[in-house]
Amino acid sequence: MNDQANARHDWLNGWRIAGWGAALALLALPAIAMHFTDEVHWTPLDFGFAAVLLFALGTGLELAIRFGGRTPKGLGIAIASVAGFLTLWANFAVGFIGAESEPVNAGFLLLVIGGVLLSLIVRFRPSALRWIMALIATGQPVLGVAALWLMPGHAVEWGVLFVFAAIWSAAALCFHRAHRRATH
């Protein structure tokens, strides 16, 4: 009986309720704004996409807490979850290079999806995750170089690409530290 009470307490703790409540509040903001201004035009598809992204972010943070806690592995999962969320949100909102419909922007989507799939395949082992995150970090500026060749005349926001590369690199560093801790 006591284990059931503890399990229920873990599931309904204040931080979890606050986190998922904040995600729902963020999703409600555009709906509320559409009643007060004509500058916000979200379709059901926009709300669905935002819900999927927020659910993925929340799930990533849940995984970070459950499987990593306050360790470098947990921090790495949390950073990677936030980086993936921000990458997809920015890419679909305005696009990293040119408009969001430019073909080179599909590369950013593929980096994140590939990273998620590979992370699942390696079962979140830090020894592999450090290389996956480093690959995604490297892919950011590589896509910028590709855009110079594939999209002549478009400006590449190198600062933005390097900021995102730094975030992914921070996740890689956390996984590297987690791997070193596990091997020593």
UniProtKB/TrEMBL annotation:
The lineage of its organism: Bacteria, Pseudomonadati, Pseudomonadota, Alphaproteobacteria, Sphingomonadales. Keywords: Membrane, Transmembrane, Transmembrane helix. This is DUF308 domain-containing protein. It comes from Qipengyuania profundimaris. The chain crosses the membrane at residues 17-35, 47-65, 77-98, 104-124, 131-152, 158-175.
